[in-house]
Inverse folding.
């Protein structure tokens, strides 16, 4: 049984029986002591006490069974409880033995005291040396802990400065990412507008379905917008990758800073601990546990590498932001210049179509006027032909009546000759009038055909003008401004 503290009270594993009303016999008591199981003392962690205390405590008398032979003393020194000869006197020791025993005890006491004094002097010197050594060692440990706390505070400040700079750079790059996303989304509108303009211009009719400068500029605009979208998308992917690198570097800094804060808290607590501090305990064998994973050189190099990695990521991020800003301005300017070129081409084309439409309307009005006049002339010719036919009927009726003259009355006189001449003249006039009528009718057909062509051409020009001026230019008025393309809103 190991003893670590003050003497403990006896503890019985079985409950003590109640005392009997009649005392048992001596033999019964001896038998009860023999059958009684040994008691067990509790073990507790107590303050340190010298071993001499337990040696002295071991000399305390203990109860022993009441038997005829007591194992603690030799049989010669046993005092019989019942004498066979009550009237006799027994002599155990002589007086010289008694004096010699006293002298022996005195000398032994003096020797023991002398040794105790020497031991006390040695212990006092040893305790003083131990105290001084412990104080010196503890002071060195405290000084090392203070230096360690200062080193941790220095690296903490460096980590905080770099972490703040990394957070600002990451936020700036995140804003640039949002501008890129907005700029990329804003290019979708102009791309759809240019594409719809091409589709709408496919609805032109007839001769106006030409590959003019507007169509060429629209195709160029679609190519430029597609190229700008590809470059913006590539830049956005690069920005996203750089944001991941920045976040990784920031996480390493935050993790290192959190470890530094915990280490600073622990080392500060250890630095402030004193011998009078509360909560001090024994931790047996803790000095044999080596849980370290770094040395001061590798410890400082680890933090320095984290800061260097963060600085490199910040420099790359700043360069990427500058190139992204330049790309946004370049793409916006390029798209805006092409947008202006397309609008100028549309304006020029609309002016041409409007002029053509005006000329067609003028020619159409003249053609209609000419058609009206030709139709009037045709009516006049037809009336003239009808009149001449009446005159021809009259002359032919006269001639026919004169053929009925009898015998010699059938005279070829001047009247007969004039009637015949009149009929011939009227026939010639009718032939000329019919030729004029046919020519006028042919000319009328040509004018009508020309009128139809002009009217169709006017419809074509109206349709082209409506497509270019109303649909295409109407959509292109909603093109995002340069500020929107650059992503500032």
């Amino acid at each position: 049984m190991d003893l670590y503290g003050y003497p403990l009270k006896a503890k019985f594993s079985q409950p003590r029986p109640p005392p009997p009303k009649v005392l048992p016999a001596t033999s019964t008591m001896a038998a009860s002591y023999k059958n009684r199981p040994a008691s067990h003392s509790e073990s507790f962690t107590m303050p340190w006490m010298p071993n001499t205390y337990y040696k002295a405590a071991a000399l305390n008398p203990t109860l022993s069974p009441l038997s005829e032979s007591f194992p603690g003393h030799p049989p010669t020194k046993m005092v019989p409880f019942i004498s066979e000869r009550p009237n006799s006197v027994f002599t155990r020791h002589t007086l010289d033995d008694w004096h010699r025993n006293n002298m022996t005890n005195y000398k032994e006491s003096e020797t023991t005291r002398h040794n105790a004094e020497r031991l006390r002097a040695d212990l006092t010197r040893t305790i003083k040396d131990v105290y001084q050594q412990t104080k010196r060692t503890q002071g060195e440990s405290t000084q090392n802990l203070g230096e360690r706390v200062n080193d941790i505070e220095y690296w903490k400040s460096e980590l905080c400065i770099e972490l703040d700079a990394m957070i600002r750079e990451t936020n700036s790059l995140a804003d640039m990412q949002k501008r890129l996303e907005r700029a990329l989304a804003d290019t979708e509108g102009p791309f759809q507008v240019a594409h719809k303009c091409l589709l709408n211009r496919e609805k032109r009719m007839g001769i106006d379905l030409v590959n003019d400068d507007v169509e060429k500029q629209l195709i160029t605009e679609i190519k430029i917008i597609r190229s700008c979208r590809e470059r913006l998308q590539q830049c956005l992917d690069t920005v996203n990758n750089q944001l991941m690198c920045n976040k990784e570097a920031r996480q390493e800094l935050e993790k290192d800073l959190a470890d530094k804060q915990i280490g600073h808290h622990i080392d500060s607590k250890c630095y402030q601990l004193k011998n009078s501090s509360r909560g001090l305990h024994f931790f047996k064998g803790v000095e044999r546990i080596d849980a370290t994973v770094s040395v001061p050189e590798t410890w400082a190099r680890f933090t320095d590498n984290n800061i260097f990695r963060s600085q490199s990521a910040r420099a790359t991020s700043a360069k990427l932001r500058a190139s992204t800003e330049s790309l946004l301005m370049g793409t916006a300017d390029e798209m805006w210049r092409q947008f202006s070129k397309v609008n100028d081409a549309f304006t020029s084309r609309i002016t041409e179509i409007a002029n053509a439409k005006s000329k067609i309307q003028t020619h159409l009005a003249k053609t209609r006027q000419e058609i009206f006049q030709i139709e009037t002339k045709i009516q006049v010719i037809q009336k003239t032909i009808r009149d001449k036919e009446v005159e021809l009927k009259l002359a032919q009726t006269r001639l026919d009546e004169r053929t009925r003259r009898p015998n010699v009355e059938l005279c070829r006189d001047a009247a007969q000759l004039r009637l015949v001449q009149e009929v011939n003249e009227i026939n010639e006039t009718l032939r000329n009038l019919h030729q004029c009528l046919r020519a006028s009718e042919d000319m009328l057909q040509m004018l009508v055909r020309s009128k139809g062509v002009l009217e169709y051409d006017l419809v074509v020009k109206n349709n082209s003008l409506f497509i270019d001026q109303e649909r295409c230019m109407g959509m292109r008025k909603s093109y995002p401004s340069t500020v929107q393309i650059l992503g500032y809103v």
Q: What stands out?
A: The chain has two domains: 100-275+295-355, 361-402+412-486. DSSP finds eight helices and no strands in the chain. The longest helix spans residues 296-402. Helices lie at 26-35, 51-57, 95-186, 188-201, 213-272, 296-402, 414-476, 482-485.
